[in-house]
Design a protein that fits this description.
The protein has 5 helices and 4 strands, in the order βαβααβαβα. The chain has 118 residues and is of the alpha/beta class.
Length: 118
């Protein structure tokens, strides 16, 4: 059975399209590593209008809901050069559970799946 990996990456309304684009790369990297990605970012894709969907679903998801997703995962992978306050809370939660937390750089992602396409 494949490992379920909780992906922690920035997601904010102000830079939503860029964050969702990066998230898709991180999910692709996770799948290329042979694991299943799990993240709140998927909620932002639940509507044709990603901006409105993220506002309603992805960005307003409570920490209780995020943590309930984490409970089903085997590990957490943290992506990106920036760690937001929300990400810090997720990381702390995983560390308190004794869950493995792995930090993945953009360089590692690029090496595995190639350059970001514009």
């Amino acid at each position: 059975m494949k490992k379920k990996i909780y992906l922690s990456a920035p997601l904010s309304k102000g830079n939503l399209k860029n964050h969702l684009s990066r998230f898709l790369r991180y999910a692709g990297y996770t799948m290329k590593e042979g694991a299943l990605p799990v993240a709140v970012h998927f909620y932002a894709f639940s509507d044709a209008d990603a901006e409105a969907a993220a506002e309603e679903n992805g960005l307003k998801i409570s920490f209780e809901e995020r943590f309930s997703l984490i409970w089903f995962c085997d590990e957490m992978w943290v992506f990106g050069p920036v760690i937001t306050q929300d990400m810090k809370r997720e990381i702390e939660f995983c560390e308190n559970l004794g869950m493995k937390v792995r930090y993945i750089t953009e360089k590692e992602v690029t090496k595995k799946i190639g350059e970001k396409k514009s």
